[in-house]
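User: Is it possible to get a 3D structure for a protein together with its bound compound? The compound here is aspartic acid. I've pasted both below.
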Amino acid sequence: MQKPVIVVHGGAGTWQPERKSAGLAGVKEAAAAGFDVLRAGGSALDAVESAVVTMENNEIFNAGHGSTLTIDKRIEMEASIMDGKTLNAGAVGLLRNIKNPTRLARIIMEKTDHVFIIGEGAEKLAGLFKLEIASPFTELRRRYWAETMEKLMRGDHDYLPKLHKLAASNPQLFDLGTVGAAALDKDENLAAATSTGGFSLKFPGRIGDSPLIGCGTYADNEAGASSTTGIGEIAVKLVLAKNACDSMRNGETAQEAAESSIRLVNRRMSGGSMGLITLDVAGRIGAAHNSRNLCWAYMTPKTRHPKTALTARIVEETT
Ligand code: ASP
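Assistant: Yes, that's possible. Here is the predicted structure of the complex:
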């Protein structure tokens, strides 16, 4: 067994040249932050929270500060976290101004009897626990919004049901910079967390995969841990993070489970853009995607520094 281990992602989709090096630096920083927690004897839960918070604070990622805009120019952030030891979980959605949605997800997990709280209620809870408030709007996201809206208004492209066509003509719309992490600690506990601004130009009120336990995030000490990124509706329909964990429960390694999950996407969802990271109970790491990129990093006791990449195993097969 290899432990402790952290694996993080900063989103699938297409990483534009202007964001590549900052994205790699961002996942490196996140993996290092999570690993520091683990090395000091901290829990997998603390490690994934710390890694994801680092990326929420980094405007290059579509999570927390730097979240993508809805079609009517709002920001509605989502996040979730799960403890593989107890199967406790917390999730938030429709947040407008909480600096670190993942911290609020953890508060929901630990301080309430609920799993998922959205909008006003969630923000009220954030107030009770004195979480920091911050505007998540950035110039980069406003520019992306204006560019894609202009095309939309000109009728230059089809809209969301035609995702492939849209992706081809508007790659920046698909720089799916959701963030996530999975960790295994010294006590062999697993945890996972995911945070996002959601899908670019999403309809207000839309909830994606990232805050849904089993879809965007899952962790179970008996199976493995996973965080997904890509077109949320696909991960919701396939309950993708849980699917990957079930594959590990049934004996697949983390890498096999990541790849078989993407084959499932290719087979059942005609290959809509997706990626995921996985971690199994033996501390083996997995990452796979069918999108052009997956910005990700990992760190183990053997790697002196986090290993980073903009692609993992690109899976095109269906079976
Ligand atoms: N999965 C996210 C969503 O659909 C998007 C992403 O991965 O960037 O909300």
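The longest strand covers residues 77-83. The pocket of aspartic acid is lined by residues 11, 62, 176-178, 196, 198-199, 208-210, 229-232 (CB under 6 Å).
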